[in-house]
Amino acid sequence: MNNSIKKITIGFLMTIVCFQLNAQSLQITGNLKNVPDKMQVALLDGMANKEVDSAMVVDGKFVLKAKTENTGIYVITFKAIKIQIPIFVGNDELTMEGDVQKVNEIVYKGSASQELYQSFMKNLDPKMLTYFNILSIAENEKNSIKKDSITKKADIEAKKIIDEYIALSKKYNESPVTTFFLFQFANIFPLVKESLRDYYALLAGEAKKGPFAMVIEKSMESAGLGKIGSVLPDFKQNDVNGKSVSLSSLKGKYVLVDFWASWCGPCRAENPNVVKTYNQFKDKNFTVLGVSLDQDKTRWLEAIKKDGLNWTHVSDLKYWNNEVAVQFGIQSIPASFLIDPNGVVIGRDLRGDDLVKTLEKLIK
């Protein structure tokens, strides 16, 4: 093990010990160039998507403070500057110095988890960029033979990424940073999602605590839910008027249970297809039940109106902690279940024409 890796490992263990004995508040002291004076800077909890502190920038300097229950992902944002700086911290005293226009060159000190997060990113980010570039080329390729060939190249790159993650997870199996990347990759790579239990079993200690571990564990618990041919469990949640609505109240109809959110770009892009399908089949024993992972009710209602989503919508406004989403192990959106009049799942994550074609076969 080289000296830099020893430094990361020892530092991270010291952070855990300090956290367990007497956790201190997180303090971030920034000194950044190219930030306009008197601009507001904010610290967001990356998992809850909530602001936990804010401050005024004076001569490029600012201090942010918060108390954290677990080491996790946070995001520093600036008013009127479209720059976001992710950091992975617990109750650390973190300093950051550099240029806001050169985020990748910012120097951090005082957080072993941030050091490790940067190490993961250095190893994985270039590979992820290559992978997504190949996927983009494949999506735009019209020739089916060429498309298959490009897709195979993407699969090879995906394997490289997963292998790199496995190597890192074995070295740092007690770090919540490792858990965070497992959470991310389970949403991106089917191979990781299919073997999620095996990957999670490699983790230990602090890596099995906190919000990312909780979501993964819930996902494993609900792995059997929503399988084709199974009955989708009933649930209740309040609609836009605060009235409780249950899935079972729609029994007797074909129902698309659609998980989405106003802030989700892919969801909003898919909404016109759902609207088209709803309008085509709404008078033929079909409806949609939207389950939103929003936090802001105003934005939720605005998105419903703007996108013309004229069906029943429910939400507890708890973002990724939406109780139904957690119950069903939803880790990425859009996600959906198509059920028949008896509540049996007959389709999952059907998009665009696939949803229409499925319903055309079922509803005459």
The CA-CA distance between the termini, in Å, is 66 Å
Topology, number of strands: 15
- What integer is the average pLDDT? 89
* Structural classification: alpha+beta
Sheet of most strands: 5 strands, mixed
CATH architecture descriptor of the largest domain: 3-Layer(aba) Sandwich
Question: What key phrases describe this protein's structure?
Answer:
single chain, 364 residues, alpha+beta, Immunoglobulin-like, Glutaredoxin, 3 domains, 5-stranded mixed beta sheet, 4-stranded mixed beta sheet, 11 helices, 23% strand, globular, disordered N terminus
What does this structure look like?
- Mean pLDDT is 89; it is low at 1-23.
- Helix 3 packs antiparallel against helix 4 (176-188), helix 4 crosses helix 7 and helix 8 (265-281) runs parallel beside helix 11 (353-362).
- The longest helix has 29 residues, at 112-140.
- A hairpin with a 5-residue loop joins strand 9 and strand 10 (244-246).
- The strands form 4 sheets. The protein has a 5-stranded mixed beta sheet, with helices on one face. The chain has a 4-stranded mixed beta sheet with strand order 4-1-7-8, covered by helices on one side.
- The protein is globular and about 65 Å long.
- It is of the alpha+beta class and 364 residues long.
- The N and C termini lie far apart (66 Å).
- It contains 11 helices and 15 strands.
- It has helices at 3-22, 112-140, 144-171, 176-188, 190-194, 196-201, 211-221, 265-281, 297-307, 323-327, 353-362; strands at residues 26-33, 40-45, 50-56, 61-66, 72-78, 81-89, 93-99, 107-109, 236-238, 244-246, 254-260, 286-292, 312-314, 335-339, 345-348.
- It folds into 3 domains: 3-113, Sandwich (Immunoglobulin-like); 114-221, no CATH class; 236-362, Glutaredoxin (3-Layer(aba) Sandwich).
- Helix content is 43%, strand content 23%.
